[in-house]
Automatic annotation (TrEMBL):
Keyword match Coiled coil: yes
PANTHER family found in the cross-reference section: TRANSCRIPTION ELONGATION FACTOR GREA
GO biological process assignments: DNA-templated transcription elongation; regulation of DNA-templated transcription elongation
Designated name of the protein: Transcription elongation factor GreB
Key words, A-Z: Coiled coil, Elongation factor, Protein biosynthesis
InterPro entries: GreA/GreB_C_sf, Tscrpt_elong_fac_GreA/B_C, Tscrpt_elong_fac_GreA/B_fam
Domain Transcription elongation factor GreA/GreB C-terminal: 93-170
Coiled coil: 36-63
Listed Pfam families: GreA_GreB (PF01272)
GO MF annotation: an example: DNA binding
Length: 171
C-alpha cells in the first residue's frame, strides 16, 4: 500500500523552525522603515495565528502542539530580528547607499541597452524577483558609494557585463 494512505506518525519528530535570512557574523541588522513595518506586520499575523490555535480544540492534539511549537519558534526568531533592527534613514543622496533604488543600463553584449532596477534593502526584505537586493549581496556591495554615470563591470556566465548607473532615488 502507498504510504500516502497511511497516517503520518511524526508526533515524536522534532519541530524544525525555519531560519530567517542569514546575516553574516558581526553585521548589523539594517532595515528600511518599510522593512521594519513588514516585520511587525508579520509578527502580528503570527501572533493572531497562535491566539486562534490556542483557542481551538483539535482532533489531533499532537498536530496542534507541533503547529504551536512552530509558531512560537517563528515568533521568537522574528522578535529577535525586530529587536536587533537598526532603521536606516534613507534620505536623498547623490550616491548609492542603503535604501537606494538604482537604475542601471547594460552596455554591450546581447543585453545592450537593457535597463534594470534594484533597491538595496535589509536581508528580511530582500526579494530578487522584485528587484529588492540585500545590502549584503555582492551587487549591492559593488554599487555602494557609486554615483550617476559610474559604471561597473559585473561577471556573468556569458562574460563580463558593464552596467552604468543612470538614476539613484530614495523613498
Amino acid at each position: 500500500m502507498s504510504s500516502a494512505f497511511l497516517k503520518n506518525e511524526t508526533a515524536d519528530a522534532p519541530v524544525v523552525i525555519p531560519a530567517r535570512a542569514p546575516l553574516p557574523p558581526g553585521t548589523p541588522n539594517y532595515v528600511t522603515p518599510r522593512g521594519l513595518t513588514l516585520l511587525r506586520t508579520e509578527l502580528d499575523d503570527l501572533e493572531t495565528q497562535r491566539a486562534h490555535l490556542q483557542g481551538t480544540q483539535a482532533d489531533d492534539e499532537n498536530e496542534r502542539s507541533r503547529q504551536l511549537a512552530l509558531l512560537n519558534g517563528n515568533i521568537a526568531n522574528l522578535n529577535e530580528r525586530i529587536s536587533s533592527a537598526k532603521v536606516v534613514d534613507t534620505h536623498e543622496q547623490d550616491h548609492v547607499r542603503f535604501g537606494a533604488t538604482v537604475d542601471l543600463s547594460i552596455r554591450g553584449g546581447k543585453l545592450d541597452g537593457t535597463k534594470r532596477q534594484f533597491t538595496i534593502v535589509g536581508v528580511d526584505e530582500a526579494n530578487a524577483t522584485k528587484g529588492l537586493i540585500a545590502f549584503t549581496a555582492p551587487l549591492a556591495r559593488a554599487l555602494q558609494g557609486k554615483q550617476i554615470g559610474d559604471a561597473l563591470e559585473w561577471p556573468t556566465p556569458g562574460g563580463k557585463q558593464v552596467m552604468e548607473i543612470i538614476q539613484i532615488s530614495y523613498d
